[in-house]
Amino acid sequence: MSNIMKKNALLIVCLMLTAALCGNKAGAQAVPDSTVKKIDAIFSKWDQPNSPGCVVGVVRNDSLIFTKGYGLANLEYSIRNTPETIWYMASISKQFTAYSIVLLARQGKLSLDDDFRKYLPWFPDLHERITIRQLLNHTSGIRDISQFAPIAGITQQDVLTQAEVIKILKRQRGLNFKPGTQFIYGNSDYVLLAEIVQAVSGQTFRRFTDSAIFKPLGMNNTHFHDDYTEIVKNRADSYDAKDSSHFANSILNFSYYGSTGLLTNARDMAKWVMNFYRPIVGDANDIAQMAVKAKLNNGTEIGYGLGVEIDKYYDWTQLAHGGSHAGYLNYIRIIPEAKIGVFIFSNRSDLGVGSPNDQVINLFLRGKPASAAGNQTVKIDSTQAVIKEPGALKKYLGDYLTEVGDHARLAMSNGKLLFKIGVSNQAVGLFGEGASLLVRARRDTFVVINSPSTKFLFRVSPEKDTTITMISPYEVIRLKKYGKSPGGDAALQKYVGSYYSLEADCRYTIKLMDHHLILTHSKYDDSKLTLKGDDHLFTDYWWMKHLLVDFDKANNITGFEVNYGWVRHLKFNKIK
Q: Quick check: 264 and 221 in contact, CB under 8 A?
């Protein structure tokens, strides 16, 4: 070998070693050192020798201009997070599932306005037409599997597979709401979308996304994880923070896909970001479909498109989404007009990723000033807020509950009427911050003083129920005033019994112990029940925090409904 060849070979080796040593430093370095130091400062709290952390990526134009890992991917072996670390994306997976549907529609193999049961005839006929678009927009009314599973007794220690999710969905006997009338985020819709992709394409979901999206984009370290026993090199583990310096393993028990299940790294995700403004897979029209806000049946627009949330950042339109499960917390935002995207993937449950994302993108994006038209709000003179006849409103003052168990309060203070939803169960009149000031529009109709489009209708029904109907441009919330709860063992005894759900195929029991109602299940610790009025029960279980008690005409208890979060009207019948 000649001296020149030896020198060239040595140079190549040196360059390779340098690249390897710098693998966890900022990416394609068009980023000033001063900016890198500012980013390092943002994440210094989590860049500790015995702490999980995150990876950050900044994409601008056609490059990943910055990427760096902070903290550890694995605490037991002290393995650091790097741009090559593989992350569980949780709900960021949804935009890839949505795009798979868009690509199949582009090929003419389906229409977004088809009834989804055309492709999945095994799903129960619930006597409502549900379109693929409504699945994409979370307006289908189908109950959420991630909340439904623990209701059915599937714990964090159980592995929930795609096959088991399908079995649960086959047992659905009702909907949260009539399709197209509300928006409730959930995971079942996107599991069904993945099943549609498989049915239409004739391929597994993993194989379809690999051939249609990942390989064409060069995302060679990305896949939908459909086998929870499969070993994945360089994967970050996830952790719960016990305190600032002590952590515990956080078990990932989801092994289904479509709504979740994507594994990827920072360098691959950058290629996906660029596809939003420089499409290689699909075209500009396909991308534009993703960014169209959904509309309810009444024409109300909601801020969700196809697998992405659509919002404003300053006066830019951003497409964003979070993803969280176990100890994984992720957030991605893309601003196609500015050709920029920022993402943060974290493996510790207490690392809030939204605010750091703001701080990072602000270093690279000079926000356009918000347009005057977009910030104009019609306001009402605050002198109108003094109630001239407060006595007429006395019957409406007090504590209220929504159908799904949210507390609200209506009270008078210094002659003005205040309303707050989401209050704690304290004495009437104790609000804290965030109460809305109401002014009269008509006799029993009030509006929020700084948001007149939100109206409150006060009524007393023929059954003597005192109600408030809160109407905003986005939703209608009905609230019912509740009075004194039944007391004494004799009054509480009627709630005692076993309750069974055919849809969830499980049983809960209510017992009376030491003058308190207790909810029990064979797989969970007992939960004390709190009774509000005579028909609202509150538990310590996050998956069924609120139970709405059902009575027959003779005032006998016939069962209860789980009415909370992403699961509504799930019936449990009293069987003894």
A: yes
Best CA proximity match to 328, nearest among 422, 458, 235? 235
Contact between residue 239 and residue 52 where contact means Cβ atoms under 8 Å apart: yes
Average pLDDT rounded to a whole number, residues 322-326: 95
Determine the Cα–Cα distance for residues 257 and 268; give it in Å rounded to an integer. Answer: 19
- Sign of the CA dihedral with 260 first, then 262, 263, and 268 last: negative
CATH topology of domain 88-369: Beta-lactamase (3.40.710)
What pairs with residue 446 in β-bridges?
Answer: 440, 456
Distance, CA of 183 to CA of 140 (rounded, Å): 8
Q: Please tell me if the domain spanning 382-481 has the same topology as the one spanning 489-574.
A: yes
Q: Which residue has the higher pLDDT, 556 or 476?
A: 556
Measure Cα distances from 494 to 376, 403, 535, 562 in Å.
54, 22, 12, 19
- Two tokens at 535? 């028909």
Higher pLDDT, 172 or 380: 172
* Average of per-residue pLDDT across 382-398: 82
Question: Hey, is 253 helix, strand or coil?
Answer: coil
The values of phi and psi at residue 336, to 5°, are: -55, -40
CA dist 454 and 472 (Å) reads 4
User: Does CATH place domain 489-574 in 2.40.128.50?
Assistant: yes
Question: CB-based contacts of 345: which residues, under 8 Å, 6+ apart?
Answer: 54, 55, 87, 89, 236, 266, 269, 328, 330
Residue 466 and residue 218: Cα distance in Å, rounded?
61
Q: How far apart are CA 365 and CA 501, in angstroms?
A: 52
Which architecture, in CATH terms, is 382-481? Beta Barrel (2.40)
Secondary structure class of 28 (helix, strand, coil): coil
Is the full-model pTM beyond 0.90?
A: no
E-only strand ranges, 404-450: 407-413, 416-421, 436-442, 445-448
Say if residue 130's pLDDT is above 60. yes
What pLDDT sits at residue 296?
Answer: 94
For residue 463, the model assigns a pLDDT of 80
Crossing angle of helices 188-201/94-106, nearest 10°? 40
Average pLDDT, the chain: 89
CA-based nearest residue to 186, from 124, 117, 136: 136
Domain boundaries defined on the chain: 88-369, 382-481, 489-574
In 3D, which of 476, 464, 484, 468 has the Cα closest to residue 420? Answer: 468
3-state DSSP assignment of residue 521: strand
Residue 496 has what pLDDT? 98
Q: Give the N- to C-terminal CA distance of the chain in Å, as an integer.
A: 90
d(CA 117, CA 102): 18
